[in-house]
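Let us work through a complete example step by step.
Step 1: write down the sequence.
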Amino acid sequence: MLTLPSEKYIAEHMSVIDVDAIHAAREFVLLQIANQLQDVFKTHYLRLNTNKPYEFNMEEVGNRYFKNVCLSYLMLLADTQAHENVGIDQFNAALASNMTDTMAALRALTQVECSSRAKALSEFYAKWHHNPLVVDKWFALQASSKLPGTLQQVKKLLHHEAFDIKNPNKVYSLIGAFGHNPVQFHHKNGEGYQLLAEIVLQLNLINPQVAARMIKPLTDWKRYDESRQKLMRGQLELLSKNKNLSPDVFELVKKSL
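Step 2: predict the structure and record it as tokens.
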């Protein structure tokens, strides 16, 4: 009941996807719930945030899930420093022994402007850099952020030591997650579309099947407003003129156009 439909789900029910309106409306509702129920969220968060050892059973799974829903709402409130402290305290306490609580705290921190975000991301990577699957989650969290600097962060992560464009899982976790970011990929300046087209061209020479999977967010261009349609179509037209385009990618581009 406390988990709102995703922006992607809402978009599927619109004949013309209004990226900015969906995001603004959903953020407004989230903030209203956070403000109206903040005392309830605080009470339950404190009740459930115990130091008892990790257990895997239905009751504890439910408690952790509800606790982390409370945390996600508390992190939205105007009193950011107080609630940022709650998030970073949970992150620090869970980092050594509880991946569920660690990821929940890190997810909440990546969605708000706060001074602790970069430090938490760095510490998480330092702890789990040896585990490729966890690093994939680390990439995806950053690429899925609704914050304005997400595109620049994705560009930076393309040069990170753990990223390898020849590794499909790394591409899916970073570029795939960014391509499904409902607000920052579709920023009205079109830079997200341009980045995706550039990556597709690189992948086209390395792994055409992965390139074909990555291009799909652009092929939905007809669902968006006129301005975004023009920008998305422009990138597809540039791709269609590339003489080295693989059959996998070429077919999707031409069919879409």
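Step 3: interpret the result. The chain has two domains: 37-128, 130-257.
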